[in-house]
Design goal:
The protein is an alpha+beta fold. Helix content is about 25%, strand content about 25%. Strands 24, 25, 26, 27, 28, 29, 30, 31, 32, 33, 34, 35 and 36 form a 13-stranded mixed beta sheet that branches. The radius of gyration is 32 Å and the shape is globular. The chain starts with a helix and ends with a helix.
Length: about 850
């Protein structure tokens, strides 16, 4: 019974969602209850105080969601967004009413509120139900953002009953920005005399807004962004650059803002993506402007400043906040070699301007001189920029933005073959259609891909797994959109030397976030070769990389970013067709996720191996070598040794089984794209497997107790065991972060609590042993778990004690504590395993 109680305490989110929606529902705002959203107008409305149509920076506004016509509701979610379908949240909710919660990540400020253990550290950006009682009205106070972010609309989803709900209703009133009156008591002001650093420029906050016009020297003596086609007068922002002497490039950044606590930053990126970007930021702190370096980690959207010299390679020339314009001019060294000695590896994230880069521009509010996450999607240059010349980008594109709609074709299954992820409403994330046309198959691939330098692709697979797949791609890069052919050999994709081999009649476009490629693909390799009079060396050695379309194949859909027209690794795990596709027929095929059962089993085996069995074995060896007296052995061996060996052999067997399962699943060694921590997972896994194999082999050849070599074995055995244990635990956390499987954050919480439990039990046992053995046996160490005065071991029965009566009783504490510990460890292992096993379901429901 105790086990079940522990499990229920640890994993309530596994059992029910009546406590509110999960974080992954924040974008779509769609419940996972089954059925589909009601198409009628929702019998609910968002109400503001009478006559309220505007917001000012930091203004508190009362917002009410209320039912009409005598209706009630059980669940809801409300967000302040720039538009209905753009997942960017504005403002905050200072105090959540009773029975409500915030399940979401703040897309506007970067604050996170994923875990109820830490929710009091972060601001609330979304409000939803926290319990399922009947409601007719919910009222809360919303605090407006600290700057002008444009129009704001309140979007809401409401659940009336399990299968009756409305998604993304919109408040009737759009809130427009209105500057705060000049006599407002909360207006910020700055005393210029308070500036203490010569590197900072201060001004008082202005109540009028100036104008940013394109510099007349743009394209002549200085480079400018954005291009004149995007903005020439009254721009929201402007970035200019020019070389300064032999070693520097001088930048000027300007941004309109009504706040003197604001920032504008530029990033140098190799792939027009947020990750792995060197950033220079101008920050106004109550009008005092400073310049600093920071870095966006690879594969992440998290920005961090150096722990050392944050102005490495930078010199502030001037900075001001005046007439609503934040402006700063600074010099940046062309390379780290010219910037001098780094104090904390700043040179690793200080990108050289002797190379060309995509330029990113972002801005947002600041607090105490520190950035809050950008208030809108960053702007990217559409091509690489040479900052040592007077060059101007041809345009800008947001990293993310609103997209058009993809609707399922009504001819699907009748006169067109289709593969898609369309919902019941007909809205799709991607749609592939085909129709046989003589020796060709006519394809149209359409997908939602906002931004520039992106792709979506279809793989023809023989086995529902990646590897040995013929691929056709639709790529938008540097204002060029086209279709190409490539091949997956193992986990790597390579484009054919003739990249459009077998393709014809290509038409491609990328508008309103919709990427679309239409093309004809010849059915077989030989047809293409015969048409050209000889076999193409481009597809050497044979047709193995250009599949015969007369055969049936499983279809894989993937998407991601592109560099120079070439594909980066897809951003999420591909989805697979629910059945094989026959390109000579008109089949309507839906998309399904690739099975993750083996990954889940792999994770569960590792959790039980290193959270449950490893800790049981270590605990026995550390605290129980002297507990059971002579005469209480099992089969001539000490009880602690029998239990220790049984637990550690089980650890080895579970680890080996988990390794075999994952190697079979990925078809060998897995090369992971992501953060360094994510990439370390297979490496750490191999290390753990090796150590878990070596240690029992060492134990088989251990020297006899009291022999000279025994201390060396003890040291080696403990060192290898502890190293394997630490690596195993760290690798569990790395496994939780893998993109191939979505593990809820609560799994990490369970493991952290389990580690705290282990520490508490071991500390309690250590204190007990110290108190009860002090003065009785000075050679006994409860930490190392052996008696040095007797030479160690206690593994086998003492032959001299064969006929000795059992005179020592086992203390009650020593019976109770391992029982409690085992129950606790088992509960934690089951809880974490349940979360891993149900992770996808937890992400799919609201």
């Amino acid at each position: 019974m105790s086990i079940y109680i522990c499990i229920l305490v640890l994993v309530p989110s596994v059992l029910t969602y009546s406590a509110g929606p999960p974080s992954n529902a924040c974008d779509s705002m769609t419940p996972g209850h089954g059925g589909s959203s009601q198409s009628s107008a929702p019998p609910y409305q968002i109400v503001f105080p009478q006559g309220k149509t505007t917001y000012s920076e930091g203004e508190n506004i009362q917002v009410t969601l209320e039912a009409t016509g005598g209706n009630i509701f059980k669940g809801f979610m409300i967000q302040a967004r720039p538009s209905k379908d753009m997942y960017t949240t504005y403002g905050s909710i200072p105090s959540l009413p009773t029975g409500t919660k915030n399940p979401c990540v703040d897309k506007g400020s970067g604050k996170i509120n994923k875990c109820f253990f830490f929710s009091f550290f972060f601001q609330n950006v979304v409000i939803s139900h926290g319990e399922p009682s009947d409601k007719t009205k919910v009222t809360f106070t919303w605090k407006a953002p600290l700057a002008d972010v444009g129009d704001i609309v309140f979007v809401f989803s409401v659940v009336q009953a399990k299968a009756i709900y409305w998604v993304k209703g919109v408040a009737g009133q759009v809130l427009k920005y209105k500057a705060k009156p000049t006599n407002s008591p909360t207006d910020a002001s700055t005393d210029a005399s308070t500036a203490s650093s010569s590197s900072k420029a201060t001004t008082t906050q202005s109540q009028t807004t100036g104008q940013i016009d394109r510099d007349p020297d743009c394209d002549m003596t200085i480079g400018c962004f954005p291009a004149s086609a995007m903005c020439s007068t009254n721009c929201d922002y402007l970035v200019t650059w020019k070389t300064s002497g032999m070693n520097d490039v001088e930048f000027t950044l300007k941004r309109k803002t009504t706040s003197n606590n604001y920032w504008i930053g530029i990033g140098f990126s190799d792939d027009a993506q947020m990750g792995n970007t060197s950033v220079t930021e101008c920050v106004s702190n109550n009008g005092a402007v400073d310049v600093k370096n920071s870095y966006n980690a690879d594969g992440e959207w998290r920005n961090s400043r150096s722990t050392g010299n944050q102005q490495y390679g930078l010199t502030l020339v001037s900075g001001s906040y005046n007439n609503g314009i934040l402006s700063c001019t600074f010099k940046r060294k062309k390379s780290a070699d010219l910037a001098g000695m780094a104090s904390a590896n700043e040179d690793d994230t200080f990108f050289s301007l002797t190379k060309t880069w995509y330029l990113l521009v972002a801005h947002g509010s600041a607090s105490g001189g520190n950035k809050v996450k950008h208030s809108e999607s960053p702007k990217f240059s559409t091509s690489r920029i040479d900052f040592l010349t007077v060059s101007t980008d041809t345009g800008t594109t947001p990293a993310m933005g609103e997209t058009g709609m993809i609707k399922k074709d009504s001819k699907c299954g009748e006169s067109l073959g289709c593969y898609h992820d369309c919902k019941d409403s007909g809205s799709c994330g991607f749609l592939l259609t085909w129709k046989e046309n003589g020796d060709n198959i006519d394809f149209t691939l359409t997908c939602k891909r906002p931004g520039n330098n992106v792709f979506c692709a279809i793989g023809l697979s023989k086995d529902k797994k990646m590897g040995d797949d013929s691929v056709f791609e639709c790529v938008s890069s540097d204002n060029t959109v086209s279709a190409y052919v490539s091949y997956n050999g193992g986990r790597n994709n390579k484009r054919l030397s003739t990249p459009q081999f077998g393709l014809s009649s290509i038409k491609a476009s990328h508008e309103d976030g919709i990427l679309k490629c239409q093309f004809s693909r010849m059915k077989t390799f030989n047809q293409v070769s015969n048409m050209n009079g000889r076999k193409k060396r481009a597809v050497d050695p044979s047709a193995s990389r250009y599949f015969d379309m007369n055969k049936d194949f499983n279809l894989l859909y993937a998407f991601g970013t592109a560099i120079g027209g070439n594909l980066n690794k897809h951003q999420t795990h591909p989805v697979i067709s629910s059945q094989t596709a026959d390109f000579q027929s008109f089949t309507d095929i839906g998309a399904a996720s690739i099975s993750k059962d083996r990954i889940i089993i792999h994770g569960i085996l590792m959790i039980f191996a290193w959270i449950f069995f490893a800790n049981c074995g270590i605990f026995m060896a550390r605290f129980y070598k002297t507990v059971w007296p002579e005469g209480m052995e099992w089969c001539g061996q000490k009880r602690w040794f029998v239990l220790h060996r049984l637990a550690m052999v089980t650890v080895f067997l579970l680890t080996a089984a988990a390794a075999v399962i994952i190697f079979v699943h990925v078809g060998g060694y897995s090369e992971i794209v992501g953060t360094n921590f994510q990439k370390a997972h297979p490496i750490l896994g191999i290390i753990v497997m090796c150590l878990a194999t070596v240690n029992p082999i060492m134990a088989l050849f251990r020297p006899h107790p009291n022999t000279p070599k025994r201390p060396y074995f003890n040291f080696a055995h403990i060192t290898v065991g502890v190293t394997a244990y630490v690596c195993g635990i760290v690798n569990i956390f790395a496994g939780f972060d893998q993109p191939a499987i979505e593990v809820p954050f609560s799994a990490k919480i369970v493991i952290w609590v389990a580690l705290g439990w282990i520490g508490l039990i071991e500390l309690t046992s250590y204190i007990y042993d110290c108190q009860h053995k002090k003065g009785h046996d000075e050679g006994t160490s409860p930490i190392l778990g052996y008696n040095s005065s007797k030479g160690e071991a206690y593994e086998m029965k003492d032959a001299a004690a064969d006929n000795a009566p059992v005179t020592q009783a086992v203390p009650t504490f020593k019976i109770v504590i391992p029982s409690v510990h085992v129950i606790g460890l088992l509960a934690f292992a089951i809880a974490a395993s349940a979360i891993v096993a149900m992770g996808d379901d937890m992400h799919d429901e609201m």
